[in-house]
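Can't paste images in this forum, so I'm doing it all in text. The chain is below; anyone willing to post the predicted structure tokens underneath?
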Amino acid sequence: MEKSNNWRRLDNSAKIFPIASSKKYSSVFRLSAVLKEKINPNILRKAVKMVLENLPSFKVKLKKGVFWYYFEDNNKEIIIEEEKNYPCKYIDPNTNNDYLFKVTYFENKINLDIFHSLTDGNSGIIFLKEIVYTYIELAHKNEFSKELRIKRKFSNNTEDDYLKNYDKKSKNNRDGKKAYILKGKKLPLAAIGVIHVNINLEQLKSKAKEKNVTITQYLTSILFYAIYEANYRKYNGKKPIKICIPVDLKKYFKSETINNFFSYITVQLDFENNNFNSFNRILEYVKKDFETKLTKDEISKTMSANVKLGNNIFIKSIPLFLKLIIVKLSYMEIRRYTTTTFSNIGRIGIIGEYQKYIDKFLMLIAPESVEKIKCSACSFEKNLVFTFTSTLQNTDIEKRFCNILKMQGIEINVEGNGVHDFIS
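Text version of the structure:
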């Protein structure tokens, strides 16, 4: 197949998502900005079009090659709609003018759903922030000068930094044990339940400091404890609970790419064979496991193993139609090595002049058939939002998570999308 001049290869992580994804496994995450005013769709449409001119790496469509998918420029109109569907749903190119992201709005909220082939959460935040900045400037023209926009700098670098930074001699550090899979009846009609736990950030920081752990370690420990008490014990779990924690590789390697550049660590607790009978015991173990695995050397091993697999001559030479079959089957098996995923993208910094217009930010990850609950977090000013996205009818894990926070003396406020009748 002959490609146009305006095309580029997918990065090493991006390659897998078009092959493994489907309507049941969307590989879509959502970033949302909640403003303090109702969204004007005409202004939002104009803002997104302006931002795409400055960030052309997002203005692409996905095309099939002989061996891999690739990106090609997309000059179609962007579609901006009111939110009508569940979050993180499969983005159908036929109804979205071939774009790999979808912008929707609802009352005072701007949603940006992104197919993971396009980029990761950290670069997605850059895209969302630019949309929000531009929207606020257009909605409040008298308060913002053109100089502010000129000062904002962002990268359009689309290098595959996996290839630049992986170690060809690195050995695989993967664990071969399958994980405990969450049990329970699923929601009907492919529904996705969303529960946002708004957490007092100062109190959370204080409690984490008191325990001498990071916020991510603290929240991961609470999640382990909630899963153990609300699901694992109820269904007599035997396999270890394993939580996948995505890691921003830009913190470990020099990089300016706007593409995917992340890896992960897997923290696991074997409740069947160890005495994790208290929160403090779990917290102590999680801290040590993080410290062991969250080093440049260990992260490099995981990243390098994935890159070497993608660069394997045999795999590269398999035609795409065969890769679709092989990867889908292997990916179904790989997903059984994780109980859930928890992604904390941390503090979202906003230029001072724009802060007064913004209430908070949200991050949501698509749950799927094996990882029936996925978790995410981000913070803005004095609030951290921990979000559960779930395909389960039961909300025992979410309730237990909230109760543990309250027992620790941390103030919370819970919101949802109405799928669950949730009372914490």
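The chain has a mean pLDDT of 92. The longest strand covers residues 28-35.
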